[in-house]
TrEMBL record, chain A:
Region (Disordered): 29-56, 167-189
Annotated Pfam families: Gluconate_2-dh3
Annotated InterPro entries: Gluconate_2DH_su3 (IPR027056)
Protein name: Gluconate 2-dehydrogenase subunit 3 family protein
Automatic annotation (TrEMBL), chain B:
Superkingdom of the organism of origin: Archaea
Keyword Oxidoreductase: yes
Family to which the UniProt record says this protein belongs: Belongs to the GMC oxidoreductase family.
Pfam families given in the database record: GMC_oxred_C, GMC_oxred_N
Span of domain Glucose-methanol-choline oxidoreductase C-terminal: 401-520
Gene Ontology MF, one: oxidoreductase activity, acting on CH-OH group of donors
Record's keyword terms, sorted: FAD, Flavoprotein, Oxidoreductase
Official protein name in the record: Glucose-methanol-choline oxidoreductase
Cofactor: FAD
Domain Glucose-methanol-choline oxidoreductase N-terminal: 93-315
Length: 189, 535
C-alpha cells in the first residue's frame, strides 16, 4: 500500500506540528519546498555535533523502513513530508534531533556507520540493543525511553494516524485523523 | 505585573463577579454581559487554541495520563480521599477557561419529569423545589446555546416544544447490528442528543471525525465553554485567568468581595453587587467552607449544615465483547444510539438508568501501536488481531444523595496557595449497586442476542464514576434543608448565586451539563431581575 502526500498531511493534521500548528499545516498543504537542502542520508556528520536536518531526515526514514510493515511503500517521502511539519524549531523538534543524534552515535560505535548506512536487519538489531523495543516512551527518560518517544513512537504515530496506516488495520478513519462523519456509518467492504 | 503577563487586577465598578469559567459561569457571564459590568475569575489558565493538536497527541501517547492533557494535577489540584471508594478527582475536571467541557464527551440529555420529584414518585431521594415544566423553556434555550444535534424519535424522553437546533447524527454501522438484537428482545433504540455539530453551527465547524472528542476536539465541533466566554468578552466582560478565589468576603447577608491570588504572588479583591459561584461540584462547596467566619462558623451560606453534603456522581455500568464479524469501531469518539426504555421503571429499590451503544468499543489501533515490543509486520498482525470485532454497551445509573457521601476540607494538607485541599468521601449505596446489576442484565441480554463472546463486565465491583459532581450545595425551598433556593440564590446571602450541578437535590441518571446550563440561564435571569430591582 502506497503512502501518499495526503497521508503525511493527515498524519500532521492528527498530531500537529509540535510548536506551531498553523505553520505546519501551511507548509504541508502548500507543498512548498522551503529551501532546505537535498536529503542526503550520509552527509558525513561525525560524532558529537548535533546532526544536520538532512541527517535527521535520513535516519528517521531509515528507521521507518524497519518499523513500518513490508506492504507499505513510499516511506521515505512520507517521513520527509511528515518531518516538514515536525522539525519546526520547537522543543519537541530538538528532542527528535537529539535522540536521532544519540542513536547515530550508538550505530557508529557498534557498527562503524550511521543508522542510514546500516542494513535493515542491523537497524532492527540496533533499535533492540538500545532497548527501544521494551522501553516505555518518555521524553525525559533514558536513551531507550527517549528513542522510543522521539523516534519509534514518533514514526508509528505518523503511520497509524494516517488514512493508509488506518486502512492497513481495517480502519480508514483512525483516531486523530479528521476523516469525516461518513465512515462510521459504512458497513464492511 | 511582569512583562508579557496580562493585567489581572480587579475591575472597578463591577456589577457581577462570576467565579469559574466552565459552562455554568460562561453562560451566566454571556447572558448578563450586554447590560452589566461582568468579571469572570478562573483558577486555571486560558489555553491557547493553537495547542489543541498537541494536546490531542498527549491523549494518544502512552506517556501522558488523561489529567496531563489539560495540565491538571500538582499542588494546585491536590485533594484527599477518605471514602469507601477512591474518587479520581483529577480525571474528572479541568481547570481553566472553558472548564471541564474542554475534556467532556458532550452528551446532553434533559432530566426526566420524575427526576424532579424522586421522593414523591419513587419514594427515595429529595424532590427539587422546581419541576420539569419550570425548566423546560430553559432547556430549549440551553440546547440553542450549546448547539445540540438531536431528533424527536425517543418515546421515553420528556415532552419538548421544538426540534433540536441541529439534526441528530445518523446511527452507526454497529448501531444497525445492535438494532437487530434489540428488536428481537423488544428493546427500543433511539438517537441521542450530542453537543456536537452535525452541521456548521454558530460559526463553528461541523464534526470532522477526529475521534478524540474526549479529551480534546481539535475542530471545535464539540461544544466547550470557551464559546460563551468569548461571546461574553465581545460584549465587554472581563475574564481573568490564573485567579484562584480563596475566599468570599462577606457581612451577614451579602458577599462583598472575592479574594483571589495571581501567579505573581499578588492578592486582589474583586468587589461586585452580585456574585455567582460556578466552580463545579467540588470546588464550590470547598470555597464556601474556606470562607467561614464568626457569622458563618461552619462555612459561608451553610446555615443549613448541608454545604458539601450529599456528594453524588453517576456510576458506569457496561458489558463488552467480540463478534465474529467486523463492527467498524473507533471512527468517531461519540455514540449515536441509546435506550431510555428502563429509565422510568425506577422505584425505591432500583434507580433510573440509561443505556448507550458504543461506537468506540475495543482498543484504538493508534494507541496500541505505541506500546508493545514489536514493529514491522509483527506489529501490524497484532493490530489486525486486536481491531475490528469489538462491541460494547455502556450506561449510567443514579446514585442517591446520602449524608455519608460528602466533600469536606482536609485540615492536614494545603494547596499551592496554602488553602486546605478538598477531601472527597464518596459512598454510593446499595440501590446504585442494584441498579448497576439491573443495567448489566439488560446489556448482557443484548450482547447475547447479538451472539457476542462477552469479555468484560463493568458491574458493581468494577464500576467507576462518570465525572459528574453533584449535590454538594443542594437546592431546597426550606432554608434549613438546603443551600440555595429555587432560583439558585443562597438562602443566607442576598447577592450570591450558585450555578452548578452542586445544586441538584437528586441527580437522575442523565449527564448533567444540559441541566447545569438550563439552571445557569435561569439563575442569570434572577440575577438580572434583582440587580434591577433590589440589589
Ligand atoms: C471526561 C469527562 C467527560 C464528561 N462527559 C460529559 C458528558 O458527556 N455530558 C455531560 O453532561 N457532562 C459531562 N462531563 C461533565 C461536565 O464536564 C461538567 O458537568 C461541566 O463541565 C460542569 O460545568 P461547571 O461550569 O459547573 O464546572 P466546570 O466545567 O468544572 O468549571 C469550573 C471552573 O471553575 C474554576 N474554579 C474552580 N475553583 C475555583 C476557584 N476557587 N476560583 C476560581 N475559579 C475556580 C475551574 O478552574 C473551572 O474552570 C464530563 C466530564 C469529564 C471530566
Ligand atoms: S469526532 Fe469528536 S473530536 Fe472529532 S471533530 Fe467530531 S467532535 Fe471533534
Amino acid at each position: 500500500m502506497e503512502l501518499t502526500r495526503r497521508d503525511a498531511a493527515a498524519a500532521l493534521a492528527a498530531v500537529g506540528a509540535t510548536g506551531g500548528v498553523a505553520v505546519a499545516v501551511r507548509r504541508v498543504t502548500d507543498g512548498a519546498d522551503d529551501g532546505r537542502g537535498a536529503t542526503d542520508a550520509t552527509d558525513g556528520d561525525e560524532g558529537e555535533a548535533p546532526p544536520s536536518e538532512a541527517t535527521v531526515r535520513g535516519s528517521m526514514a531509515a528507521v521507518a523502513a524497519v518499523l513500518y510493515p513490508s506492504e507499505v511503500e513510499g516511506v521515505e517521502a512520507f517521513v520527509d513530508r511528515f518531518l516538514d511539519g515536525r522539525l519546526d524549531g520547537s522543543a519537541h523538534a530538538e528532542g527528535v534531533r537529539t535522540a536521532v543524534g544519540e542513536l547515530d552515535d550508538a550505530a557508529r560505535s557498534w557498527y562503524d556507520a550511521p543508522v542510514a548506512a546500516l542494513s535493515e536487519s542491523e537497524r532492527d538489531r540496533l533499535l533492540r540493543e538500545v532497548g527501544a523495543d521494551v522501553a516505555d516512551e518518555d521524553p525525559e527518560g533514558t536513551l531507550a525511553e527517549r528513542v522510543r518517544y522521539y523516534v519509534v513512537n514518533e514514526l508509528l504515530l505518523a503511520l497509524y494516524a494516517s488514512p493508509t496506516g488506518g486502512e492497513l488495520v481495517g480502519l480508514e478513519n483512525p483516531q486523530g485523523h479528521p476523516g469525516g462523519t461518513e465512515s462510521y456509518r459504512r458497513g464492511p467492504r | 505585573m511582569s512583562a508579557g503577563e496580562p493585567d489581572r487586577s480587579p475591575v472597578t465598578n463591577a456589577d457581577v463577579c462570576v467565579v469559574g469559567a466552565g459552562p455554568a459561569g460562561a453562560l451566566v457571564a454571556d447572558r448578563l454581559a450586554a447590560d452589566h459590568e461582568v468579571v469572570v475569575l478562573d483558577a486555571g489558565p486560558r489555553f491557547d487554541p493553537a495547542d489543541r493538536l498537541a494536546r490531542q497527541e498527549r491523549a494518544i501517547r502512552p506517556s501522558y495520563d488523561r489529567p496531563d492533557v489539560w495540565d491538571v494535577g500538582g499542588e494546585r489540584d491536590a485533594h484527599a480521599n477518605s471514602g469507601e471508594r477512591v474518587y479520581p478527582l483529577n480525571h474528572a475536571r479541568v481547570k481553566g477557561v472553558g472548564g471541564s467541557t474542554l475534556h467532556w464527551q458532550g452528551m446532553v440529555m434533559r432530566l426526566h419529569e420524575d427526576d424532579f420529584n424522586s421522593e414523591t414518585e419513587r419514594g427515595v431521594g429529595a424532590d427539587w423545589p422546581i419541576d420539569y415544566a419550570d425548566l423546560r423553556p430553559y432547556y430549549a434555550a440551553a440546547e440553542r446555546e450549546l448547539g445540540v444535534a438531536g431528533a424527536s424519535d425517543n418515546p421515553y424522553a420528556p415532552p419538548r416544544e421544538e426540534p433540536h437546533p441541529m439534526p441528530a447524527f445518523e446511527p452507526s454501522y454497529s448501531d444497525s447490528l445492535f438494532a437487530e438484537a434489540c428488536e428481537e428482545l423488544g428493546i427500543d433504540m433511539h438517537s441521542v442528543p450530542n453537543a456536537r455539530n452535525s452541521e456548521a453551527y454558530d460559526g463553528r465547524s461541523a464534526c470532522v471525525g477526529y475521534g478524540t472528542c474526549q479529551p480534546v476536539c481539535p475542530a471545535g465541533a464539540k461544544y466547550d465553554a470557551t464559546v460563551h466566554i468569548e461571546r461574553a468578552e465581545e460584549q465587554g466582560a472581563t475574564v481573568i485567568d490564573c485567579a484562584a478565589v480563596g475566599r468570599l468576603e462577606h457581612d451577614a447577608d451579602r458577599v462583598t468581595a472575592a479574594a483571589y491570588a495571581t501567579p505573581d504572588g499578588e492578592e486582589h479583591r474583586q468587589t461586585a453587587d452580585a456574585f455567582v459561584v460556578a466552580c463545579g461540584g467540588v470546588e464550590t462547596p470547598r470555597l464556601l467552607l474556606l470562607s467561614e467566619s464568626d457569622r458563618y462558623p461552619d462555612g459561608l451560606a451553610n446555615s443549613s449544615g448541608t454545604v458539601g453534603k450529599f456528594f453524588m456522581d453517576h456510576l458506569f455500568a457496561g458489558v463488552g465483547g467480540t463478534l465474529d464479524e467486523p463492527t467498524r469501531q473507533n471512527h468517531v469518539g461519540f455514540y449515536t444510539s441509546a435506550c431510555d426504555q428502563f429509565y422510568d421503571e425506577a422505584d425505591e429499590s432500583v434507580g433510573p438508568f440509561k443505556l448507550e451503544f458504543f461506537n468506540y468499543a475495543g482498543p484504538s489501533p493508534v494507541e496500541q501501536a505505541l506500546t508493545g515490543d514489536d514493529w514491522g509486520d509483527a506489529l501490524l498482525d497484532r493490530l489486525r488481531d486486536g481491531y475490528g470485532t469489538h462491541v460494547a454497551m455502556g450506561g449510567l445509573v443514579e446514585q442517591l444523595p446520602r449524608a455519608d457521601s460528602y466533600v469536606g476540607l482536609d485540615p492536614d494538607r494545603t494547596d499551592d496557595r496554602g488553602n486546605p485541599v478538598p477531601e472527597i468521601h464518596w459512598s454510593v449505596g446499595d440501590r446504585a449497586l442494584r441498579t448497576i446489576e439491573r443495567a448489566n442484565e439488560v446489556q448482557r441480554s443484548v450482547l447475547e442476542a447479538l451472539g457476542a463472546d462477552i469479555e468484560w463486565v463493568a458491574g458493581p465491583d468494577a464500576t467507576g464514576p462518570a465525572y459528574h459532581h453533584m449535590g454538594t450545595t443542594r437546592m431546597s425551598a426550606d432554608p434549613d434543608a438546603g443551600v440555595v433556593d429555587a432560583d439558585c440564590r443562597t438562602h443566607d446571602l442576598d447577592n450570591c448565586w450558585i450555578a452548578s450541578s452542586a445544586v441538584f437535590p437528586t441527580s437522575g441518571a442523565m449527564n448533567p451539563t444540559l441541566t447545569i446550563a438550563a439552571l445557569a440561564l435561569r439563575a442569570a435571569d434572577d440575577v438580572r431581575e434583582r440587580l434591577t430591582h433590589t440589589l
